Amino acid sequence: MKRMRRNHGATFKAQVALAAVKGDKTVAEFAEQFSVHPTQITESKQQLLARAADVFGGTRPPSDTPDLKTLHAKIGQLALENDS
């Protein structure tokens, strides 16, 4: 019988990553304690360390949303060209 895939929430991942950062135990011991693969612990730890500055107002990645005013202006310009 197949075992269902477990999806861990952000709170659980943060708890695991914080425990790994403390370093009281080895990764293998944490893997046994939290019942996850050691690779998942390492990845969670790396993500926490990479994004820790964001918690305290560090640099934020640029927004992926385009400027609406320029897009509307471009649409208007193209509409005028099509009408001509």
Query: Mean pLDDT across all residues, rounded?
Result: 87
- Supply Rg: 23 Å
> What would the principal axes of the Cα set say about the shape?
elongated
Distance between the ends: 67 Å
Topology:
Layout: H1 10-22, H2 27-34, H3 38-55, H4 68-83
Helix pairs in contact: 1-3
Task: Walk me through this protein's architecture.
The chain is an all-alpha fold and 84 residues long. It has a domain at 1-58. Helices cover 65% and strands 0% of the residues. It has 4 helices and no strands. α1 (10-22) packs across α3 (38-55).
Outline:
This protein has 84 residues and is mainly α. The chain contains four helices and no strands. It has a domain at 1-58.
Keywords:
65% helix, 4 helices, elongated, mainly alpha, 84 residues
